[in-house]
Specification:
Radius of gyration: 19 Å
Number of strands: 20
Strand content: 35-45%
CATH superfamily of the domain at 3-45 and 82-228: Jelly Rolls
Number of helices: 5
Order of helices and strands: EEHEEHEEHEEHEEEEEHEEEEEEE
CATH topology of the domain at 3-45 and 82-228: Jelly Rolls
Largest sheet: 9 strands, antiparallel
Distance between the termini: 19 Å
């Protein structure tokens, strides 16, 4: 079975820039180009197979036609495709926000919640992000700080550089700061509750909506703890992410598909005896059961699976 290159669904949120096009080769005419959904089965932006016998099908259409076995046995426990992989270019600060956990999101939004992780691919000097709370707070204090515009005083501000990894469970307040390009691996959801947005005006000429009541229902009021994932960059029920550089001999067994996102350089990907050139800004879907594969070249890439 071959590796399928995916064309991303692209988004033009007001805080984005153009680096996904200029530095990562993402094919899009959007301006700004804020997000590229590299591996997506979400109805708000599914990725599309770029070539091969299924060229032009969305990823969910391909899976429906090929059968659930292409996802692997571990995916049988999910009622939905488990993950979504993005590239994000933050020319400006993103809103301070939170994502709900599954139970709340299903009850209020009709879709699942969102746990995610970021891998910093590029960072301007002095770039930072917000990642959870510095100390435990009460709901009343939190609500008051949001109302007074004083929320950042209790957030954990983290200066970052290329290669840093941040794991963000649902319920964690967070925000990507200006000057960052990140790869985001997340649970398959598009539910975001904005808590603070710097008073910005949206494309409709009105202040972008906030979701404070819902946010207060789901925010974890405890300080954020560091997590370790052994040999992995991050791992949870919905995804595991590994970082590889240079030559790598992998195996895609019956348990899970593999997604390969090239984050630096170029090389050659060989699957089932077929080789193809790959480069920065491309994402490949390997069906479960593809077997041994090899990536050669001066490149860096994320390997993501269930």
């Amino acid at each position: 079975m071959p590796a399928y290159r995916l064309l991303p669904a692209c988004k033009d949120h007001i805080w984005g820039g153009q680096r996904l096009r200029t530095d990562y080769g993402i094919p899009s005419g959007l301006d700004p180009l804020s997000e590229a959904w590299m591996l997506s089965c979400h109805p708000d932006g599914p990725s599309v197979l770029a070539d091969g016998p299924y060229q032009g099908l969305t990823l969910p259409e391909y899976i429906q036609r090929a059968g659930p076995q292409v996802l692997g046995t571990r995916c049988r426990r999910f009622e939905y495709f488990p993950m979504l992989v993005k590239l994000i270019d933050a020319k400006q600060d993103l809103s301070i926000q939170v994502h709900p956990f599954d139970e709340y999101a299903l009850a209020h939004e009709g879709q699942y919640g969102k746990t995610e992780m970021w891998v910093v691919l590029d960072a301007a000097p002095g770039a930072y992000l917000y990642h959870g709370l510095r100390r435990e707070v009460g709901r009343e204090e939190l609500a008051q700080r949001i109302e007074q515009g004083a929320l950042t005083g209790i957030l954990r501000k983290r200066f970052v550089s290329r290669g840093d990894v941040i794991f963000i469970p649902s319920g964690t307040l967070h925000a990507i700061g200006a000057g960052l390009v990140v790869a985001e691996v997340q649970q398959n959801s598009n539910v975001t509750y904005r808590v603070f947005d710097y008073g910005r005006i949206g494309a409709d000429g009105k202040p972008r909506p906030l979701h404070i009541k819902k946010a207060l229902d789901v925010i974890d009021l405890h300080p954020t703890a560091e997590r370790g994932f052994g040999p992995h960059l991050g791992s949870c029920r919905w995804f595991t992410t590994d970082l590889r550089t240079g030559t790598y001999d992998g195996a895609c067994g019956e348990t899970s598909f593999h997604a390969v996102l090239i984050t630096q350089g170029s090389g050659t990907l060989t699957v089932d005896g077929a080789s193809r050139a790959v480069k920065k800004g491309e994402c490949y879907f390997l069906c479960a059961g593809s077997g041994a594969y090899r990536l050669d070249g001066r490149c860096e890439y994320l390997v993501i699976y269930v």
